[in-house]
Amino acid sequence: MVIAGDMLCADQNFDIAQVLRFFRSKPGELAIYYELEEGEKSSSRGIVEVCPETHRISRFLEKPQEGVTALRLASVVFYCLRKATLPYLSDFLTLQPQAQDRTFGRFWEWIINEEKLPVFGMKLPTGFQLIGQVGLSDYTKWLAHYSAQQQQCLAKPITCRSYARVGLMGNPSDGFNGKTIAMTISNFWAEVTLMESQTLVLLPHPLNDPTEFGSLQDLYCISRKEGYLGGLRLLQATCKKFYQFCSKQGIALTKQNFTLKYDTNIPRQVGLAGSSAIVSATLKSLMKFYNITESDLPKPTRANFILNVETDELFITAGLQDRVVQVYEGLVYMDFSKQLMDEQGYGDYIPMDMSSLPPFWLAYLSDPSDSGRIHSNVRQRWLNGEAEVVEAMKSFAALTDQARVALQGMDWSRLAQLMDENFALRRSVYTEDCLGPGNLKMVQLARQFGSAVKLPGSGGAVVGLCLDQVRLVEMRKSFQEAGCVFCVIVPYNPSGTIGTNSQD
């Protein structure tokens, strides 16, 4: 291991053991790099190009002149070398008789660009300072700066929010190489708060993760409504997967602990993506805490990460739709075609205009215990190539493309018709027994008032479009009298502007 003695790492909690583990997992040398800060010149550092899949450094430029490259990943004198590579140092020195050319930067430039030896890069989320000719006063100044930064971080918690979503078209074909349109709504959300602490603590939610009850009857009532699987497992699984991801991707995390807690007002067990919202908000907070950037974890990869937390760690049956729309936020068109998924590992995700949307409404069961087992055996039938299911998923995708055109053209009557067709198709594939009496009752009630209606998720709720405002008020009353919770949807727009109701 080679580290420049005059270099100061921006993070005093740097975990050198993680660097060694990553080095030993790779068949080559290791070079630490970081992303240049704004104003930092590339001509002052060795600049690297790193393959995002293999993490191998494909090109090294030693202090390039301004304008030579747009790359912003900078290598510093922090390397790990294998014993078998050490003889190359002698060869390099022989090739460079001039003392000014005998630098580690030139060595790596030669060994990577010309000798083609495998050298891998590991990213440090924070930067480096004081490289070169500096004095004691410079070190004192920067240490004071980092100390002040650390105190500021200790005092300021990180709070991140992710929103519930409604599937407007195409669901549940997202798990079957289909297409969907979904939207985040500001009516309901999950919120995660992270604060630095001496030990790592995951705080249980008093309602969703209860360990103390007033009586046996209280335990019965809470367990019946809330179930047994709270949000604490989601926090733990996300943290575990996050560390695993960063280790595999060559991102060196700092040795900092934190306390993590969550809150949510998303109704449980009614198919509004409450679980993935907690995972998404947790991931946001971890990324902020450890300075993980968009380039480290791009949005398509982030959606895959959230899905993997739920499917790989917690064995939850799910598709990508909810995770994609909660990462991108707003109104999103999603294409999960097999060719796209095979070629790039994710689909095409296109945010749509939200400036003028129709008056969507949402209703859900106050007691979702009879909401049905929505996914049933459809997945196995699809994997078996059963023609009815395969064609149905293609039809869901076709409906989504038509709905996209209707939304872009503000053709709300056509959109309402397509929503009804979406539910009819789902009903034919999943059958009424599978959908459950609660869902069917809500659909029937909505149709009495001439409203379009479909399931926004896995069951327990319905989303609709009623273009008659008078009947919308009457329908709300009927849903409430039937024991359902009813609300007019308020779309969540990440741009900060509120989508206007075209009926106003």
Into which percentage range does the β-strand content fall?
15-25%
Low-confidence stretches: 370-374
Query: What's the level 1 CATH class of the largest domain?
Result: Alpha Beta
Q: How does the overall form come out from the CA principal axes?
A: elongated
Q: What is the radius of gyration computed over CA atoms, rounded to a whole number of angstroms?
A: 27 Å
Head-to-tail CA distance between termini:
67 Å
Helix content: 25-40%
The residue-averaged pLDDT reads 90
3D architecture notes:
With 504 residues, the protein is of the alpha+beta class. The chain folds into two domains: 2-151, Spore Coat Polysaccharide Biosynthesis Protein SpsA, Chain A, CATH 3.90.550; 159-501, 2-Layer Sandwich (Ribosomal Protein S5, domain 2). Helices cover 39% and strands 22% of the residues. It has helices at 16-24, 87-95, 104-113, 136-155, 216-226, 232-249, 274-289, 299-313, 321-328, 338-344, 378-383, 387-408, 412-430, 432-435, 437-447, 469-481; strands at residues 2-3, 8-9, 29-35, 46-50, 57-62, 73-80, 119-123, 128-129, 158-169, 179-197, 201-202, 257-264, 331-335, 348-352, 356-357, 360-365, 452-454, 461-465, 484-488, 500-501. Strands 1, 3, 4, 5, 6 and 7 form a six-stranded mixed β-sheet that branches. Helix 6 (232-249) packs across helix 8 (299-313), helix 8 packs across helix 9 (321-328) and helix 12 packs antiparallel against helix 13 (412-430). The radius of gyration is 27 Å and the shape is elongated. Mean pLDDT is 90; it is low at 370-374. GO terms for molecular function: ATP binding; glucuronokinase activity.
